[in-house]
Amino acid sequence: MKIKYIDLVEQTFEFPQQEFEVIDNELYFHNIPLLDIIKQYGTPVKLTYLPKISEQIQKARRFFNVAMAKVDYQGDYKYCYCTKSSHFSFVLEEALKNKVNLETSSAFDIHIIEELHRQGLLDKDIYIISNGFKRQLYLENICKLINDGFENTIPILDNMDELTYYEENIDKKFKIGMRIASEEEPLFSFYTSRLGIRYNDIVPFYVDHIKKNPNIELKMLHFFINTGIKDTSYYWNELSKSLNVYVELKKICPELDSLNIGGGFPIKRSLGFEFDYEYMAEEIIAQIKATCEQHKVPEPNIFTEFGSFTVGESGAVLYSVLDQKQQNDRELWNMIDSSFMTTLPDSWAINQRFILLPINHWEREYQRVCLGGLTCDSQDYYNDEAHSNAVFLPKYEKNDPLYLGFFHTGAYQESIGGYGGIQHCLIPAPKHIIIDLDENGEYYPKLFAKEQSYKSMLKTLGY
Asked: What is the pTM of this model?
């Protein structure tokens, strides 16, 4: 009778997998023995495996470049990293090793770019795609960047009034883009995205306000939908509408040469995850080429803005089970040594599921449990997974620690959780370690941040 936890996993999924394997009943993540990490650093602890970032960037480039080669596509492919997914220096440094371009969303992003340039990590010819509804400081910083020689900085107009500021404050010829206000998916609360300019306004706005100004080059049309890149009729319909705007605009705007299809490649949230990246890249490129050929216009350069896809699968959070509580006939609660609301805020805010696996005791019988965090909030729990409406873990034994990990948590969780600030119920932010490989391919961890101290919290609170 197969009642061990490892039996449950092996009969439910193809296992082991690329990044996960079990040796002597202990979990390895990218060949890293996680129990050794716990013995060295304790729990809770966050980790970032840097080589995964480079792997994802190269994977996407391969998909799109192969897709272009198959149909003899004449434009180029440009990979942008969305800094908002994770602003940490080690993430940007790893991404920039791969000669990526960057997408920004706030005024402070520009200061990060300036600092990276001072450190010699990026050149002024990098493409900076500046998105979002822009307040005064953001506008000022974009203009300063362009005036300082970052000539491939492309502010994406989110509204029509934005252009006036650039005209008045940039002292040279400059590039711009326009974002299309795409329609939201049918079940969303609104019909049209709050971001961007309406389809019907784009061409008239170009004719009336851009075409006549010799200092402005409209280089990019930007398209993005919140659901991301998925093989659905909704996605293909919105892409088709955006392509129609592009070809109409290209016929009267010869300098327009780039289509930005945004981001949204999904990442692995379950051991049963399947997504045909290769097919999606090929279909996107084929549709763009076909539309351009139909209208007899050159194919555009393709920009993507991958954030979660770049950094999400590099992250993990490891916890200890502090105790188990039997609360009624059916519910067993494993209490962890941190809080989901502070360390994995997406798990309660948008019910995001991550890959959950035990670190040790894969030889034990499994049991159904609920996971509880340390705060007093009723929402601080985790009780189902992407592939199942339940959580199963090895049986808990009082005097033999059980450790567990949540994987592919590298995008957004620190910024949404308020890294370095005040956490709910003053639960401290955990240690954060970075794992890289040396020249021999051996992993080595280093401490990026200690567990948040009470002194830093008191200082933030004014004590």
From this structure: 0.95
